[in-house]
Design a protein that fits this description.
With 390 residues, the protein is an alpha/beta fold. Helix content is 29%, strand content 26%. The protein has ten helices and 17 strands. Helix 7 packs parallel to helix 8. The longest helix is centred in the N-terminal third of the chain and has 16 residues. The termini are far apart. Bound molecules: S-adenosyl-L-homocysteine.
Length: 390
């Protein structure tokens, strides 16, 4: 049965919540058809059996209402007005409950929520991440100042209400920016990170690292990507935009060697530890812009057999794709959370001789307008042999 949300249309999180799940899948399929349909064979999008409460990362902005009561929720779409959200249909329920508990504790601890206009107050955001496989939970309290009065008692009280919490981190974000997390962090309880398992490998996740928000569907996605890569154990693989190394570490079991490249230093630190944690000795990580890194590899005359790329929603760059062609892999597996930028990039890849035939959609973000797609590109055999005869 279709579920209703009181803030639908205001929060902007689930654009398609007015439709049944089947209808959302049809709509997404049609969107992919419009983007890829003419040139590619489009497979039916892989949906979820239980498409609710799938987000393993829950973020709430803190503010107060006119009566001074603390509220936790989301910014109204396109504004900085906070709309209270008490129960979200796509977010992990345990994480959502922790956020509500924190909201309820603020008054007795005399913790004021941060006011963007005046700059007064302490608590700006709370972020909760839960490893669905491990059950480990990380709570990140984002504060405007490092001074957190009675923090030890606060942590103790929160833990007694939610003994399932594994770690609590204070992140300090004093700047007037729209970024949620600042650079400074202090671990208030536990290890400062959590672990989770995907495709049989265990990964460490810290507060600022990227980690796929829907682990159930991520396993479907990674399995498809690796099926397309069809590794035999002899290949040199590049995992570009690798985050905490998930795809590369899973692929390394079936490859000779893997090279991961990622811009976010925290994610790379997690990736290096993750490789050790999974006894993976045939992977190396580099903290660099993926495009610049490939330019250097190409300049040094390096080659690769398979390139897997999973760029952010903005897609890849011509610099990156030009260098992929120079590394001359047999296969390129392009994973994308932005099918429109992927369609743009596929056109460019085609000019470079890398051609895809089929598009696989995976519904990583049920009830939102977003879809994840994977495409295998193979090196098109050009007619160079004919040209060189003359
Ligand atoms: N493959 C990973 C991460 C994908 S998200 C996974 O499945 O978990 C995209 C990643 O690209 C993020 O970790 C982001 O930090 C990284 N990124 C963004 N711009 C980048 C760039 N120019 N060069 C390298 N990595 C970049």
């Amino acid at each position: 049965m279709q579920k209703k949300c009181p803030v639908f249309g205001k929060c902007g999180g689930c654009q398609y919540l007015n439709l049944s799940y089947e209808e959302t899948l049809k709509k997404k399929q049609k969107e992919l058809k419009d983007l890829f349909g003419k040139e590619y064979r489009l497979h039916p999008i892989q949906g979820m059996e239980h498409p609710y409460f799938y987000r393993n990362k829950v973020h709430a902005v803190f503010d107060h209402d006119r009566k001074g009561e603390p509220i936790a929720g989301v910014y109204r779409e396109g504004s900085h007005q906070v709309i209270p959200v008490e129960h979200c249909l796509i977010e992990d329920e345990i994480s959502g409950n922790i956020i509500q508990t924190i909201r309820g504790m603020l008054k007795s601890f005399k913790i004021r929520t941060y006011d963007e206009d005046s700059g007064y107050g302490l608590l700006r955001h709370v972020l909760v991440r839960r490893g669905f496989a491990s059950g480990q939970i990380m709570v990140v309290l984002v504060t405007a100042s490092p001074i957190f009065p009675s923090k030890n008692n606060f942590v103790k009280a929160l833990r007694s209400k939610h003994p399932e919490i594994s770690t609590i981190v204070q992140n300090i974000n004093g700047r007037g920016t729209s970024m949620v997390l600042g650079n400074r962090e202090q671990v208030l309880y536990g290890k400062g990170y959590i672990e989770d398992t995907l495709c049989g490998c265990t990964f460490r996740i810290s507060s600022k690292s990227f980690y796929q928000i829907n682990p159930t569907q991520t396993e479907v996605l990674y399995a498809k990507a690796l099926e397309l890569a069809d590794l035999k154990g002899t290949e040199r693989v590049i995992d570009a935009y690798c985050g905490i190394g998930t795809i590369g570490i899973i692929a390394a079991k079936k490859a000779k060697e893997v090279i991961g490249v990622e811009l976010n230093a925290d994610a790379v630190r997690d990736a290096v530890i993750n490789a050790k944690r999974n006894n993976c000795n045939n992977i190396r990580f580099y903290c660099q812009d993926a495009g610049k890194f490939l330019v250097e590899m190409a300049e040094q005359g390096e080659k690769a057999d398979v390139v897997i790329l999973d760029p952010p929603r903005s897609g890849s760059t011509e610099e990156f794709m030009d260098c992929v062609a120079k590394l001359a892999p047999k296969k390129v597996v392009y994973i994308s959370c932005g099918p429109d930028t992927q369609a743009r990039d596929l056109k460019y890849f085609k000019k470079l001789g890398y051609v895809g035939k089929e598009v696989y959609g995976v519904d990583l973000f049920p009830f939102t307008k977003h879809t994840e797609t994977v495409v295998l590109l193979s090196k098109h055999k050009s007619d160079n042999s004919i040209n060189t005869r003359f």
